Amino acid sequence: MGEPICIKDFEEFAYKTLPRNALDYYRSGAGQQETLANNKRAYSNYRIRPRCLRNVAETDISVTVQGEHVSMPVGISPTAMQRMAHPDGECANAKAAQDMGTIFILSTISTSSIEEVAEAAPRGIKWFQLYIYRDREVTRQLVSRAEHAGFRALVLTVDAPFFGLRLADIRNKFVLPPHLKLANFQGTKSTDINKSKAGSSLNDYVNSLFDQTIEWKDIAWLKSITKLPIILKGILNFEDAIMAADAGVSGIIVSNHGGRQVDTWPASIEALPEIVKAVGDRVEVYVDGGVTQGTDVFKALALGAKMVFMGRPALWGLTYAGEAGVKKILNIMKREFESTLAISGCARISDITPSMVVHKSYYAK
Ligand code: FNR
Q: Is 131 annotated as a binding residue?
C-alpha cells in the first residue's frame, strides 16, 4: 500500500497489522453491529446543498468551544487502552492533538496516566472522561488529579452503567496484554482488569467497579466536587438533553459510544437534530460516531453541532505511526473539511446554514 491519504486507508492498514485481541476490541460494536454500521451510513443519507459565488479565497475553520480557541471543529474522543495500538498510546494521541490545536479527551481506563498525558502535552486542550466508580473516593481522586494536571473539562459518560455485549470480545475472551496496565489505578484494586474466567474481562471489571446507581442527582454531587465544566457524553434524545441543560451542565456529546452499547440505538447524526432543537443555545452540543470524512463534519455542523469528535480513526492513526499517524489523520480531516467548506460556498463556519444540508428524500420529491 502507498502513503495513506484518507481515513479508510489507515483503517485498512490497522486491520492488517493489529493483533486480533486488540483489533476486535477497537473495531467492534454491540450485537449484530447495526448501529456501528449505521453511524457511518447515516451520514450518506444527508446531502450537501452547495452555494456559489461567495468569495472563498480565505477560509477560517477555527471554533470557540467552552470559551477556548480551537483550530478546527474535529477533536479526539476518549477510547480506552490506546497502548495496544502503539507503545506511546494516549501520550502520542494527546501530543498530536496539541500540535494540531484541537481537543483531546482522555479515557478513565487509559494505559497512560492523567499525569503522563499532562506531561506529554502540557499546552494542549485536554478534557478528562470520567466513569463514576462505586468507591466515590476513587472517583473524587480522579477528578482532583485531572484538575491538578490542567485538564479543562470533565466528560461524564452517561451511556455505560454496564458495557454492551461485543461478541468478538466475548469469543476472544478479551484481555489487556500483560505488559500494559490501567495506568490511573496503579497499586489499587481498580487496576486489575484481567480476572475473568469466561467472556470479556473488561465487562467483568465494569460490572464490579462502576456505579450503576448513578442518577441525575449525582450531577449535582459531581458539580459539588469540581469547578471544571461538566459535559455529558452519550445522550441520544431530547428529553435527556433538556434534563442535562436543567442540571446545569456545560455541554452534551451526542453519542452512542461508537455503536458499542446496545445495537439498534440510533446513529448519532440521526439523534442530533432533536437535541439541538430542544436545548438551543443553553448548552454546547457536540457529536461523535462514524465521522471519517470532511463532508461528515460539514453535515454535523449544519445540523447544529459545534464540534465533532473521532474515536477509532485516531486509533488507526496511532497504529500506523503513533503521534505522526494521528497528526496525519487530523491533517486529512482538516484538508477535507476545508475543501468541502470552500467549494460548497462557505469561507467560515458561521457561513454554514441549516438549509445547506438536507435529508436525501428532499431530492426524491
Ligand atoms: C470507546 N468509547 C469510549 N467512550 C468513553 O466515554 N470512554 C471510554 O473509555 C471509551 N472507550 C472506547 C474504546 C474503543 C476501542 C472505542 C472504539 C470507543 C467511545 C468513544 O468515545 C466514541 O464515542 C466512539 O468511538 C465514537 O465513534 P467512532 O469515532 O469510533 O466511530
A: yes
